[in-house]
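About this split. The held-out portion is used to measure sequence recovery: a designer receives only the structure tokens and must propose an amino acid at every position. Recovery is the fraction of positions where the proposal matches the reference. Here is one held-out target exactly as it appears in the evaluation file.
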């Protein structure tokens, strides 16, 4: 199975208001990491102390790093039309969607799967379904949490283990069945066709 596990760190919890400060995406092929897209992002605004306390990302770390408008195209190219997986995917997807719309940018074309509701059904009875709890339950080796590339890597291994758990005869479930397990409609990023801006015919007069 081929998919991209991804995670964003942000300045807060409100898409379109708060900004992405780190992108981490790891392409998994047959259960192993194959390629990585990882970068800090300059949000062009101060990072609130509460966010820094969670993710360990401070203003001096992002100063001079690429801004999101310069990264959207290359991120979309990296993801292509691969299936994308995030834990609590609607949260992360809303942040990227806000930037895609704002900058009329290219976007990943693949279906976005939310691993959180799938995990609730595959691993019933856990005290909670945070990524850290699931990773610990599956005895996946870890170091730090709440950094985008690390969390995306843990997620990829967790998702691989989860899919194996529900595979039949070594055959992974169809994507449609995984979507059904989420109990939600298909989630995809908007595909925006940038409209040519009309010339101001009267501006020269």
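Reference sequence for scoring:
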């Amino acid at each position: 199975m081929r998919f991209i596990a991804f995670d964003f760190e942000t300045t807060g919890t409100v898409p379109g208001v708060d900004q992405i400060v780190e992108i981490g995406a790891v392409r998994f092929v047959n259960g192993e990491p194959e390629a990585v897209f990882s970068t800090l992002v300059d949000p062009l605004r101060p990072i609130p102390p509460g966010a820094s306390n969670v993710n360990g990302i401070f203003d001096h770390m992002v100063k001079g790093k690429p801004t999101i408008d310069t990264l959207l195209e290359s991120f979309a190219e990296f993801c292509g039309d691969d299936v994308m997986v995030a834990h609590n995917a609607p949260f992360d997807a809303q942040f990227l969607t806000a930037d895609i719309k704002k900058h009329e940018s290219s976007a990943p074309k693949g279906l976005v799967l939310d691993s959180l509701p799938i995990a609730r059904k595959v691993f019933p009875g856990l005290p909670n379904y945070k990524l850290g709890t699931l990773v610990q339950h599956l005895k996946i080796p870890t170091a730090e949490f709440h950094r985008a590339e690390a969390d995306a890597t843990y997620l990829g291994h967790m998702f691989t283990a989860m899919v194996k758990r529900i595979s039949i005869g070594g055959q992974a479930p169809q994507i449609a069945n995984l979507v059904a397990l989420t109990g939600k409609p298909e989630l995809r990023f908007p595909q925006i066709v940038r409209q040519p801006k009309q010339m101001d015919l009267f501006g020269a007069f």
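Annotator remark: The chain is about 40% helix and 15% strand.
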